[in-house]
# Entry
Amino acid sequence: MSQGNMIYEGKAKILFEGPEDGTIIQYFKDDATAYNAQKKDSISQKGVLNNQISEHLLLALGEIGIPHHFIKRLSLREQLVQKVEIVPIEVIVRNVAAGSVCSRIGIEEGTKLPAPLIEFCLKDDALGDPVVAREHITLLDIADDEELDEILYLTNRINDFLCGLFRAIGVRLIDFKLEFGRLDGDDSYEIILADEISPDNCRLWDVKTNEKMDKDRFRRDLGGLIEAYSEIAKRLGISIELEDDSTSGDAS
# Structure
């Protein structure tokens, strides 16, 4: 469908004005970035796969009562979502040690953690999205204690559900990133899940082989990213539609 005015362009998505007040069209690009956008490329069909995988996972979370911004998928690359005020922190959930936490605290990749480790990162590219404590978040007036309690409650429920969902299809949920937003109500607002959940912001390893089935295939020059994302979709039971190469990545 035709979009309204562009609101914002990020590393992996573009946001446009939605057809009704309180809505936004979220467009999934093929751009791939890593290491705070120091590494960049475009991978055909990545946005198409992420759009459909995220739709599937958000709808599944909605079925267990997790509030989220997703309304419906509009096309191969577009979602209609509720307009929210994004809380400018990333919530990182780690079930197994991988990525930056290994070098930061000297733990070997692949080490199963005794309990999920939840970290907060400030959404600030200029600062390199630093890890921050809860006290930093309240000091900077980013969110109050009540909001953080709700974010942690939702995060733990999401992790429990997704770990089981992925385990059932032979995949280990190593870690993942969440974002939350404030949805305006009549007299107050609600904290809800926003952004996306896809192999772009999850680490997913095959249970039997530990093969990486996520964006680490791009980060580490392993190749086969689209094949890995497609395999995740297949195991989830998603009948993936792919885009004609002649229109791939066209947001106009």
Summary: The chain has a mean pLDDT of 95. The radius of gyration is 18 Å. Residues 99 and 109 are 7 Å apart (CA to CA). Residues 145-167 form the longest helix (23 residues).
